[in-house]
Predict the structure.
Amino acid sequence: MIFPNLKNAVFGYVNLDLEARGWFKQKNIDHTTDINILLEPQKCQEFIDDVHKKYSLDFSYGGWMEDRTFLWKDGYLEKDKNFIHLGIDINAPQGTEIATDFESEVVKIGDDYPLDGGWGSFVVLRHLSKPIYLIYAHLDRDILCKLGDKLDIGIIFAKIGYAPFNGNWFPHVHVQVIAEKYYSNIEKNWDKFDGYGLKKDIELNAKKHMDPMEFISLK
């Protein structure tokens, strides 16, 4: 279970791009002309809180291969139109402890602050029984593991971070799978590695970055 301290919490799937469309309409905001207020972490958290209240949720998840053209309009993704989300976002309070769902090895720990829209603090785990790696991003800077650690199931290794240190996002953890056959090349070109891709590459990216929900548990 990824959040041991939230084992009795109510959670559910949400499509944030669709929810954002409805939220802007409800707030009478012209998304076509106004600068996207969701790029501000505090405003985006207000939006997330409203979505959770709407569905009576304590936290939510979603986003794998989701088109987020509306959600992140005006952000850094606009330049190349890389709006397809390659992992999942689990939208939970800052400071929420994150635990391993599988036996793993810590192979990379990094922090790209103050890059706006970046990973912030992140940890990459190698799954010890599957040919995959998983990146956990937008973490608190107080990482609770070190490079080379072997982690058993249920070990708390990080916490959800907060802006601006988490890449300047609203509090959530981004979890993304990297298939083993692609990892070495990604590692060599880490500065170009991102959590979003092009719509035309969605079939390939679905193979490179499988659905994280196959490997983690929310309950």
